[in-house]
Amino acid sequence: MKPTLSNDLSRTLVLGLPLVGSQVAQVLIGLTDTLMLGRYSVEALAAATISHTFFFSLLVLGSGFAVGAMGMAAEALGREDETQVRRVARMSAWLSVATAMALLPLFLASGPILSALGQNAQVAGDSQTYLRIAGWGMVPALLTATLRSHLSALEHTRIVLWATLAAVALNIGVNWLLIFGNLGAPELGLRGAAIASVGVQTLSVLVLGAYALRGPGMARFELAKNLHRPDWPILRDIFRLGWPVGLTHVSESGLFAASALMMGWIGTVALAAHGIAIGISALTFMVHMGLSQAATVRVGRAWGQRDGDALRRAALAAMILSGVAVVLAMALYFGAGRFIIGLFLDNSDPQAPAILSLGVSLLMVAALFQLVDAGQVMALGLLRGVQDTRRPMVYALIAYWGLGIPASWAFGFPFGLGPQGVWLGLVVGLMAATVALTTRFLRITSAAAPLTSRS
After folding, report:
1. What's the CA angle centered on 443, arms 438 and 444, to 5 degrees?
2. Per the UniProt record, which residue ranges are transmembrane (predicted)?
3. Contact in structure between 171 and 194 (CB atoms under 8 Å)
4. What's the whole-model pTM score?
5. pLDDT per residue over 2-61, tens digit each?
C-alpha cells in the first residue's frame, strides 16, 4: 500500500497519544503539588512555585542526554542495529547518573542561591526546605528520562503512560497524608510534598526498568548486558548530541524561571497567580511535547532509512496534530479560565480574589503564546530526529535569553505592564525561536544529500 499523509497521521497518533498522556501526567505531579499546597497556605504555594521552577530547570538540563539518545536509538532501529540500541541506553544511563550527582550541591545550597536571585527570606528558606529533600530524587528522575527515551524509540509508549499515571496517583495519596497530616501521619507541609516527589520518581524508574528488561519484545535488546562496561565512542556521541539539548531545554526553562523570579519581585500574589497559570499552560504544552517526541522517533526512523518522503510526511503529520491541539487549548483558556484558576484557591483566603483576577488575565496571554510555544518545541523535535542539536541550541539561547528575558523585564517594569507584560515578553522569545528553528529544519530536509525520494 502506498504511504499517505493519512497513514502518517494515524501512526503519529498511535505513537504520540501515550507520550502526550505521559507528559500530561508528569506535569500533573507538579500541578497536584501546587493544587494541594495552595490549599495549605499562600506562602507554601509561592515557595512551591519557585521550588518546582528550580528543580525543573535542573531536570531538563540533565535530561538532554536522554533526549539526545532517543534520536540515536530511533536511527539505529531504522538500520536494524539492536546492539547499538542497547549501547545507547547504557551510556545514556551512565551520563544521567553522573549528571544527577553533579547537580546535588545546587539543591543543598538552594536557599542562598534563591536569596541572591532576589527572593525574599521566607520564600528562599521555604524553598530550600523543599529542595534539600527533592534534590535526592534527581537520580531516579534522570534514569526515568533515560528509560522513557529508550522505550519511546522502540515505540513502546503505553507503559510510559501507565507508569506515569501510577506515579500521579501515588503523589496525590502521599501528599494528602504528609502535607496535611491525615490518618495520623505527621503534618509536614512542603517537606511532605518533597518526600512524595522522591517516592514518585523512585517508583517510576523501578516500573519502567522492569518493563525494559522483561516486557513484551524487550528481551532481545538485553538491556542489562554489560551494564558496567563503558562504550566510549557512543558515550562521546551521546554527550555531543545531549549537552546542546540540555542547554536548549534549560535556556527555555530559564526563560520561564526568570519570569517566576520577576513575579517574585512584584509580590507574593503575582508569584502565586503565575504559579497557577504557568502550571495550567504547562499542562496543555505537554500535548505538544509528547507529539514532539513522537516526531523525533518517526523522523529518526526515516533518517536511518534515508527515506526523504517518509521524513517529510512524518514532520507534516506531527505539525498538523500540534496545530489542532493549539486551537483546542486556546478555546479552553478563553472559555473556562476563571473556573480552572478557581480550583487552585481557597476562597476563604483574603488574597484569593486578587490571585484569581490576575491568574485569569495571565491565561489570556498564555492563549497567545501557546501557538509559538508549540511551534518551537515541534521544530526542536524534528531537528533532533535528524540529530541536529548544536545550531538549535544557539538559536534558542539567542531567542530566549537575548530577546525573551530582556523583553519580559522591559514590558513588565520600565513599560509598566506588570505581570502581564512579563508574560508578553515570553511571547517575543518563543516567537523568535519558532521562526529560526522551523527555518533550520526546512533547510536541512530540502538540502540533505543522503535522503532519497521513494514513490
Report:
1. 100
2. 12-32, 44-72, 93-117, 129-147, 159-180, 192-213, 234-251, 263-289, 310-334, 354-372, 393-415, 421-442
3. no
4. 0.75
5. 677 888 888 888 888 888 777 777 777 777 887 788 778 878 888 887 888 788 888 888
- Whether the CB-CB separation of 376 and 430 falls below 8 Å is answered with yes
Identify the pLDDT of residue 1. Answer: 52
- Rounded CA-CA distance 382/361 in Å is 33
The sign of the CA dihedral 351, 272, 165, 211 is negative
CA distance linking residue 325 with residue 305, whole number of Å: 30
> Domain spans of the chain?
5-447
Read off the amino acid at residue 323.
G
User: How far lies 85's CA from each of 77, 222, 411, in Å?
Assistant: 7, 10, 47
CA angle 215, 220, 223 (to 5 degrees): 75
Which amino acid is present at 388? D
Closest CA to 362 of 315, 302, 422, 286: 422
Q: In the predicted model, what is the mean pLDDT of the chain? A: 86
Q: What is d(CA 429, CA 406) in angstroms, rounded to the nearest whole number?
A: 9
Question: Degrees (nearest 5) of the Cα angle 432, 62, 428?
Answer: 15
pLDDT of res. 448:
54
How many residues are listed for the chain in this entry?
A: 455
Tell me which range, 64-78, 274-288, 295-309, 422-436, is most confidently predicted by mean pLDDT: 422-436
